[in-house]
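In the current project phase, the collection of sequences with tokenised folds has grown. A sample record is quoted in full directly below:
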Amino acid sequence: MGNDIMLVALYQSSVDCPRKMNKLFLSISALIVASATSLSAQAQDLKGDVKAGEKKIAMCIGCHGIHGYQASFPEVYKVPMISGQGAKYITSALNAYKKGERKHPTMRGIADTLSDQDMADIAAYYEVHGKVEGAAPVKTAEATGKVGELLKKGACASCHGDNLNKPIDPSYPKLAGQHADYLYVALKSYKVEGNPQVGRANGIMGGVVKQFSNAELKELATYIHAQGGDLKVVPQSKFR
């Protein structure tokens, strides 16, 4: 009788052990996910300081603060205008480079050196850089014909807002007026898969751009560039 009780106890222990281990692993996994989510939320909620950001942009102005400056990788194109861009988008983009979701060696190298607070400060600085209070909104031309059809097909305004200059979410970019060649390269990059040096991982944008040929993406980029918006290049004093 005593042996039978011992055998039952051993059996029950062997059954319960995996269950307990599974519960433990699930608890640990939940804790890791919760911690990562909390840290991500904290990074997004950081308050950027414009004055502090002005002291942290030395690595930015050599490309983004020169009119007509061109990058040469993965092809020759003007670097994007970031003065006037939304702060949350700039932060989101820098984090994407840091995580490797956007694959550009130079930008990832820069993003790797930045803390979450650095990103928030730089983003806050560029959001107001060159902004003129009371400036009249720039008029834009209504898209018609083929371009109108392409914009409708891509549902671009559903995320990037009226005139592609008022995103529905601050983590989305303003597009209106951006350099056409940069837009073209950026759009094509969402099509790239499996390249460690080139490409952008974004499920929504990937699905959108894969509907279009490269010729159609170039046509969209040309139209978007011609629209008025908040984006501009503001040379820093040492480059004027």
Observations:
- The two ends are 95 Å apart (CA to CA).
- Confidence is low (pLDDT under 50) at residues 24-41.
